[in-house]
Design brief:
Helices cover 29% and strands 25% of the residues. It has a 4-stranded antiparallel beta sheet, sandwiched between helices. A hairpin with a 2-residue loop joins β6 and β7. 35% of the residues are buried.
Length: 181
Amino acid sequence: MTDLAVPDPRLLESWAACVRDFDEGPMDGSGDWHLPAGWRDDLSERGCRVVVDDLLPHADATRPLPDDRVPCDYYWVTDGDPAGEPAVVVGFLALRHRLNAFLLEEGGHIGYSIRPARRQEGHASRALSLAVRRAADLGLDRVLVTCDETNEPSRRTIESNGGRYEDSRKGKRRYWIDTGA
């Protein structure tokens, strides 16, 4: 069962396996772009704690942020058996509380990625659906979700979650999803 988990060092082993699976590729929704340089070189418990300690404060809407940042809830997309199997990290998701100029053009409210070994299992669609519900809890009436023009699987994921295509800008397809808030 797909879920959104707050980053937690207790998920160290599956988090590290997930990061390794991306190799050097992009991990949309992971917050890696503002982590310390070389963070992928330390997938130990210490390295995981550095990542978690960096990500969690971004959710605090009262925290002063640079102009190019907005409050953001970072999640690890997990898969676990409701019967008690431990959850494993299968991807990443970022839910931004508002948009700035860059996010309005290209990034959107929600960014996500699923590790290559776990794609085509429905995790992206279920994670996006969960994030849209959480956006409603934040008071957002609708969210912007974008994907590369060439990313057909992400396009289908967004559209299956009610995404209405608005336009394309700078190689990104832009979709709006009503949250029901």
